[in-house]
């Protein structure tokens, strides 16, 4: 074989296998392929004639979503010092049969400039006057004017109230009211899906569900403060609260350390020279005239150590069973030595009959007889406070909050201080700092016929040991706990709040539509601590907690009427209380 030919052939160039080869990235085609004729037709449809007025061009281009960009371009080119064409462009988008609010928000944000502020002062008012409340809120928010959006929300609340009033007149058979033009209100009602009474509330709920700042502004604004008992305004407040709960779930205060310091200073215990044990001993001495075996022990917040020292002295007379007592005799007993009360009255119609008196030193005392459940509750809370030191500051902050808002307890149809304490215990449970507290030993002791303070203390220690509650140190997170307390009260609806962990069972509420807080007593499981609330006081309580919560978790905002922590409860001066 001749190898000469093989040697004369040029060597072939081999590619290096170790060198990486660049791969061409294939461009992904999006959308349908258009022919040249279709592309020319689309370009011609987007182009505007020099003879066509800009307003007519905007109206024509807003007919299809594909030409929205062209309409925006015409509006931006035609506008000079005013915002007439921007108002026309956004108005066409908002006045469609099925407006796309994301599209409105997109083009509104792109138009933010000097003319956007001018458009925000014109268009939302016009849309609100036409009954398009949701579109008015969306346009104002997208253009950066939260004031105009809040004004549209206020108009929505008024429309909700007006629709409710018209519906009430229809049910009562009264003739419809007429306006200045002689037309009935029904002719001006906004209809959505054929339901005029639900239209404003539905639009308001949808507008608030997209913007937490708008829901917060509505809560702290003046549009919901009046007419607590109006069902329509309560529904509007519920819509704002629901939106805020979803959009700001788990929100925390901005400066927790500063809020904690202010809460501790505001809810500090008052200094007092009152000796509760001495008063109890004097009452026990006086009660020997009723029975030689009579005893007297303190109970309530002063005995648990969870109070702030500003309450009354709660005393319980323990008389041996069987005992038939008259609370009027106890009141007469307080007037004699050694107490020598200036004024003593008996309230026999109370749930627990009580005798109230004022001592010469100015101390006020409440005396009950054989109140076993109250003594057991006191023993439970006292032991809890000893094992959880974070409970006492939270209870004092709750008491200071209720005092600042003038929630005066059961006699004013508000929650008692004991109910606030139970709510604080529930907050610790929700934060994972306390387990469920079924308390079998205390429950059995409260139902027995023989009991003293020592037995109650022993039963409380036994129940907490079985629940696994051990002593723990305070981590200083009072601000977070206080905000959680506000959230619990503000957003509580139909669920029963219980500290026992099991399914709560309370008597059926006779007023099903009251929408109030339902709170189970830790030991007397059939007792609802929230039953004292009326429709008005329930709305006041929920609104106060909502408003304070909004101020504490609000982000920084330079607008004057925006929510801010400085306007919340802990920062009020003493002159504003």
From TrEMBL:
User: Which GO molecular-function terms appear in the entry?
Assistant: nucleotidyltransferase activity
What InterPro entries is this protein classified in?
A: MTPAP-like_central (IPR054708), NT_sf (IPR043519)
Region annotation (Disordered) maps to: 1-52, 167-198
- Residue ranges under compositional bias (Acidic residues)? 177-188
Basic and acidic residues bias: start-end ranges: 35-45
Q: Which Gene3D superfamilies match?
A: 1.10.1410.10, Beta Polymerase, domain 2
User: Which top-level group of life is the source organism from?
Assistant: Eukaryota
Residues of the Poly(A) RNA polymerase mitochondrial-like central palm domain: 270-382
Q: Give residue spans, biased composition: Basic residues.
A: 23-33
Gene Ontology biological process terms, A to Z: RNA 3'-end processing
* Compositional bias segments (type: Low complexity): 167-176
Protein name from the UniProt record:
Poly(A) RNA polymerase mitochondrial-like central palm domain-containing protein
Organism equals Pelagomonas calceolata
Classification from the root reads: Eukaryota, Sar, Stramenopiles, Ochrophyta, Pelagophyceae
């Amino acid at each position: 074989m001749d190898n000469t030919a093989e040697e004369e052939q040029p060597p072939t160039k081999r590619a290096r296998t170790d060198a990486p080869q660049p791969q061409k990235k294939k461009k992904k085609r999006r959308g349908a392929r258009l022919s040249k004729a279709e592309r020319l037709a689309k370009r011609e449809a987007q182009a505007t004639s020099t003879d066509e007025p800009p307003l007519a061009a905007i109206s024509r281009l807003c007919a299809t979503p594909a030409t929205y960009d062209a309409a925006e371009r015409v509006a931006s080119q035609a506008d000079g010092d005013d915002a007439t064409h921007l108002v026309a462009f956004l108005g066409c988008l908002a006045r469609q049969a099925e407006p796309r609010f994301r599209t409105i928000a997109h083009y509104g944000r792109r138009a933010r400039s000097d003319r956007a502020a001018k458009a925000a002062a014109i268009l939302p008012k016009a849309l609100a006057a036409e009954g398009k409340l949701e579109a008015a809120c969306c346009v104002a928010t997208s253009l950066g004017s939260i004031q105009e959006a809040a004004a549209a929300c206020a108009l929505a609340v008024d429309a909700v109230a007006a629709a409710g009033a018209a519906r009430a007149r229809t049910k009562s058979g009264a003739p419809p009211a007429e306006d200045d033009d002689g037309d009935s209100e029904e002719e001006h009602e906004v209809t959505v899906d054929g339901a005029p009474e639900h239209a404003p509330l539905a639009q308001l709920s949808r507008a608030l569900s997209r913007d937490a700042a708008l829901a917060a502004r509505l809560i702290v604004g003046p549009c919901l403060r009046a007419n607590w008992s109006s069902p329509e305004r309560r529904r509007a407040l519920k819509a704002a609260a629901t939106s805020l709960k979803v959009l700001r779930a788990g929100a925390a205060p901005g400066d927790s350390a500063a809020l904690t310091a202010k809460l501790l200073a505001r809810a500090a215990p008052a200094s007092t020279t009152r000796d509760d044990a001495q008063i109890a001993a004097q009452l026990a001495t006086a009660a020997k005239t009723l029975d030689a075996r009579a005893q007297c022990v303190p109970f309530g917040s002063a005995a648990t150590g969870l109070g702030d020292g500003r309450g009354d002295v709660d005393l319980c007379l323990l008389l041996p069973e069987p005992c038939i007592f008259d609370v009027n005799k106890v009141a007469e007993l307080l007037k004699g030595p050694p107490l020598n009360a200036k004024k003593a009255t008996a309230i026999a119609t109370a749930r627990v009959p009580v005798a109230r008196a004022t001592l010469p030193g100015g101390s006020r005392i409440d005396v009950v007889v054989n109140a076993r459940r109250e003594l057991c509750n006191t023993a439970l809370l006292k032991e809890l406070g000893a094992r959880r030191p974070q409970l006492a500051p939270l209870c004092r902050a709750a008491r200071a909050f209720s005092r600042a808002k003038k929630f005066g307890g059961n006699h004013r149809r508000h929650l008692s201080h004991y109910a606030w304490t139970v709510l604080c215990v529930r907050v610790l449970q929700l934060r994972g700092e306390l387990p469920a507290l079924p308390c079998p030993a205390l429950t059995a002791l409260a139902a027995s016929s023989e009991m003293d303070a020592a037995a109650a203390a022993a039963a409380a220690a036994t129940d907490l040991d079985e629940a696994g509650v051990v002593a723990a140190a305070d981590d200083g997170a009072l601000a977070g706990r206080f905000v959680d307390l506000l959230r619990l009260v503000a957003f509580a609806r139909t669920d029963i709040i219980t500290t026992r962990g099991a399914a709560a069972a309370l008597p059926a509420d006779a007023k099903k539509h009251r929408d109030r807080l339902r709170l189970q007593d830790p030991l007397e499981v059939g007792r609802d601590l929230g039953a004292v609330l009326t429709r008005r006081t329930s709305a006041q309580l929920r609104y106060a907690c909502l408003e304070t919560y909004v101020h504490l978790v609000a982000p920084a905002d330079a607008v004057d009427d925006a929510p801010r922590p400085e306007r919340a409860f802990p920062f009020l001066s003493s002159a504003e209380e």
